[in-house]
Amino acid sequence: MTDTPEKAAPARDYKTTVFLPRTEFPMRAGLPQKEPGLLQRWDEMGLYRRLREEAKERPLYVLHDGPPYANGNIHIGHALNKILKDVVNRSQQMLGRNAPYVPGWDCHGLPIEWKIEEKYRAAGKDKDEVPIVQFRDECRKFAADWVRVQAGEFRRLGVEGDWDNPYTTMTNRAESRIVREIHRFLLNGGLYKGAKPVLWSVVEKTALAEAEVEYHDLTSTTIWVRFPVVTATLPALDGASVVIWTTTPWTMPGNRAVAYGEEIGYGLYAVTAAEEGSLARVGERLVLARTLADSVAAGAKATLSLVQELDGTALAGTVCAHPLRGQGYDFDVPLLPGDHVTDDAGTGFVHTAPGHGEEDFDVGRRFGLEVPQTVGPDGRFYDHVPLFAGAWVYKPDGRHGDANPRVLDALKAAGGLLAHGRLKHSYPHSWRSKAPLIFRTTPQWFISMETNGLRQTALAAIDQTTWVPPQGRNRIHSMVESRPDWCISRQRAWGVPIALFVRKSDGQPLKDPAVLERIGAIFEAEGSDSWYSRPPADFLGDGYDPDEFEQVFDIVDVWFESGSTHAFVLEDRPELKRPADLYLEGSDQHRGWFHSSLLESCGTRGRAPYEAVLTHGFTLDQNGEKMSKSKGNTVAPQDVIKEFGADILRLWVVSTDFTEDQRIGPKILQAQADLYRRLRNTLRYLLGALADWTEAERLPAAEMPELERWVLHRLAEMDGAVRQSIADYDLHRLATELHNFCAVDLSAFYFDVRKDSLYCDRPDSVRRRATRTVMVHLFECLTAWLAPVLCFTAEEAWLEWLKQGGATGPESVHLRLFPEVPADWRDDALAAKWQKVRAVRRVVTGALEVKRADKTIGSSLQAAPTLHLGGAWVEGVGDTDLTEVCITSGLIVLEGPVPAGAFTLPDVPDVGVVFGHAPGDRCDRCWKVLPEVGSVADHPTLCTRCAEAVDHLDATAAGGAA
Of 235, 293, 317, 390, which is most buried with the most CB atoms under 10 A? Predict the structure, then answer.
């Protein structure tokens, strides 16, 4: 029998002794599936109510919600707006304030009425044949349904608010308050009825406010028209014609004067030649601005010769005939001075129709001209208009009518037409029907900008408001400075009526406070439909005869309604306050909600309803083009959520500079998803690294290594940056700072350096305990700082932390406040040192990347380079363990000049690296290559540190088993 050698014991597998990250927080977010469950959880726990209860003693912060229209699914602009508001509110709440959010909707006006009219038109019905209360009820139901739909869509974005108790402009209380606000202006003298030219939609048959007007290109017919002189102030003008130019031929029946500029140099011109087809007559004499004679000659296809120069002032007293004299237009047409007349284009003379232009109206009022009523509310000439009765300026569908061609033909037949052409120019259109508008002088209700000093009060309030960005102040200031009186009446059906009575005898509105109070009280009990269903006597009371009064049925401008929300939302709801801390809407609201709220509040309370105003731009597609369904380049928030999740959309909102126009599209969203992944992986790594955390591990900052104290310094800096970004409403900076901190300071540096200690040090080692303590601070800060933006992801991470037993705390991350970061964590001297350390590390890392690329090494732990440092660098990095920081198995530091051939970086002078292989064998546990591997008999494949760690673990396990 022969001896057989003993079989060698198999090498030990040390994998189980390495503290690899361990967490159930998944790498793949699955946001579209996960977010609805979190929303349900918040609903079940009554999160909004809990937030209010816990914050009721804190300082109040109110962001007042500007009401969107309840007339369709939300679009990407809605999503941008509501997410911004939610981020602001959540941030303020976590800063330690009480930040309630009451969402609201604008439910009256054309956008909704138009939808109901479309339904009637499709059925071949006329909405005017439907009883008005029935029509209004259909509008109300339509709006209520879309309030419900939009509330769900906004909620899906993660927007937290009082969704069970929103405000709408169509509740009895709101309608009552709106009419009471109208009455305030009536009683203080600011409201009056007057005939003025207003922008009128013949499609919607109503006046429009400037905020309801869009400007689009329109191709108009242009005409040059002769006005024969009948009373000459100068002998040279006898037999001559004054020539006007206009882009609105249909206004010629309304002409009552011709305006000239007193400072303009005019000339009397003779026609010396005319091309074939020209309407000019050789020998006739025309009066024109001298600077425009050549362009008129070109348009008329004629040759003009200057006969005599004329000063503008010499034209005073000249009277012309209307070019259609003898056909129902037999009045004189005086030449009148006008400050609005220029010689930039046209002829230097402005045809003046007081019923169809603001400047024309002003001239007419100054000189007592008749204001003829020529065009009806439907865009059709009245029957009394000579030659053009029944002609359409624009048809009911918004297309050009026959008025312009008929006027052209009549002028040509009468010998008044000198020339005509076509011009493409910017022209006002209705924002709802997209049809061109006309200026039309009609009796309307106005709020005076001058009575009670409203204009000056509003301008002063603008200067007392904080505008973000600052240029918003200039925009709204110039608008208020130059705006005309506010036309608040609309000739529509769906809205709050301007509930007044006008005395038939003198046309004056009844200002009896008792009657006005009765109107308000009935509206509060029954809503504004009562104005149409109750007899006038119910409102007037016993003291007045209803037959002596006319009841006003015009409805109020919807901008007046939404501009009154400060009264029936901020003042009426006890959890809110007035003025609000912030109004936040798109930049178009400088002429919309910001503007109307300012005027309404200043006119009734003498100040703005807000302390600050933040505006955002519009959302374009990823190529910078305006979105439109016809182009197929729209991005629906519902589609983004379905593919990526709401948190990706929220991250896009704060990652872009929303104060300017921003872009969105598939490539941009994918980039946001990548950015999100880096943030999510930071939280996942922290959760994994903190598995089995116990408070017994926690170390005070004073006992930590320098690297950990540097991270605490960065946390202190970040805390300041986060709070300042929120204070400045600079959410773009907030997102950028958080991402860079996670990606650059943590993932690419701190986590990388401390991986070895975290995985391989003894659990009770100071370095590992310090690392884990710092990671707890990081996790607590990051989940709080990210919560306003990534509201779902931060919640998911916080719930996982609670499940892991890492901390006791509130059951939602949103019930937390931002952690109080100790001021003494800040250490600028330490930060300056580690800035140098990281610069040196970049050079070493760069040198190793070269060797990794050429396959000399596979891992940085196979290297032990020599680092050459100039004297200042040696002093700067001090006694830092650069081997640890650079993640090598060894590193030699030599002071002195950098040798030729060493690896260097241009921006880090006097630092060079010469590559060297690490001597020794690789440790099976930490993978460092060290000469000491094999020196511990019980663990021949480990380095001494790992051998000690394993022995400690073994002893701990044995003690536990015993």
Answer: 293
How many residues are listed for the chain in this entry?
962
In the structure encoding, which two tokens stand for residue 775, read together?
């990671």
Per the annotation, binding residues are 585, 629, 923, 926, 943, 946
Angstrom distance (rounded) from CA 943 to CA 928: 8
137-185 per-position pLDDT tens digit: 999 999 999 999 999 999 999 999 999 999 999 999 999 999 999 999 9
609 and 601 in contact (C-beta within 8 Å)?
yes
Please indicate, yes or no, if residue 443 is contained in any of the structural domains: no
Residue 626 is encoded by which pair of tokens? 């305006």
Residue ranges for the binding site for L-isoleucyl-5'-AMP? Answer: 585
pTM for the structure as a whole: 0.85
289-329 pLDDT per residue, tens: 888 888 888 888 888 888 888 888 888 888 899 998 888 88
Residue 514 burial (C-beta neighbours within 10 Å; 0-12, 13-18, 19+): exposed
Cα–Cα nearest to 240, from 349, 331, 328: 349
DSSP 8-class letter at 750: I
Q: Are residues 466 and 415 in the same domain?
A: no
CATH value at residue 715: 1.10.730.20
User: Any long-range contacts for 745-753 (C-beta under 8 Å, 24+ apart)?
Assistant: 745/711, 745/714, 746/682, 746/778, 747/678, 747/681, 747/682, 747/685, 749/838, 749/841, 750/707, 750/711, 751/685, 751/689, 752/887, 753/707, 753/884, 753/885, 753/887
Judge contact between 608 and 99, C-beta under 8 A.
no
Binding site membership for Zn(2+): which residues? Answer: 923, 926, 943, 946
Q: Binding site membership for ATP: which residues?
A: 629
| Cα-based angle 485, 490, 491 (whole degrees, multiple of 5) | 140
Nearest Cα residue to 134 out of 661, 460, 532: 532
Query: Does residue 498 lie in a domain region?
Result: no
Answer yes or no: is 68 within a domain. yes
